[in-house]
Design a protein that fits this description.
Layout: H1 5-25, H2 31-66, H3 72-94, H4 98-103, H5 105-140
Length: 142
């Protein structure tokens, strides 16, 4: 990948935050729009997680090993944020259709708020720690 991976991932984070904000502003009379926004969010999330899980994290761990940096804490961090990924997918499965959302709109709003907080926590943690670590390793490898 020739592009700066951290810039790409951070841009994707911004897109995810924007989608979450759009969904947050929707009312119970806009079920179809909520559903469509969740579909867009899910597509962007899947693209982002694929890049992170299949490209970024494996390469980060290899870089750490290559320069002799203990990667145990980083592996623990990755393991912990995987839990957030699972809770987001659980939410998306629970409210997969417009009918699911309409059938329990108050549950949707409550669970959406919780999912959004968890995902935002993950995004912030990645940007404030792991992505910075990548940049540090990259600058030391030049």
């Amino acid at each position: 990948m020739k592009k700066d991976i951290v810039k790409v991932l951070t841009f994707q984070h911004d897109e995810l935050r924007d989608e979450l904000k759009k969904i947050s502003k929707k009312k119970d009379t806009e079920i179809q729009k909520i559903h469509k926004s969740l579909e867009v969010f899910t597509e962007k999330l899947e693209k982002h997680l694929k890049l992170e899980n299949e490209y970024f994290y494996p390469r980060l761990l290899r870089k750490m090993d290559k320069v002799g940096v203990d990667s145990k804490k980083t592996k623990d961090f990755i393991s912990k944020i995987k839990y957030i990924e699972k809770t987001v997918y659980s939410f998306l499965q629970e409210f997969e259709t417009s009918k699911d959302i309409k059938g329990d709109f108050s549950g949707f709003k409550k669970d959406f708020k919780s999912m959004k907080q968890g995902l935002t926590l993950r995004i912030d943690a990645e940007e404030e720690s792991i992505y910075m670590y990548w940049k540090l390793l990259k600058s030391n490898n030049k």
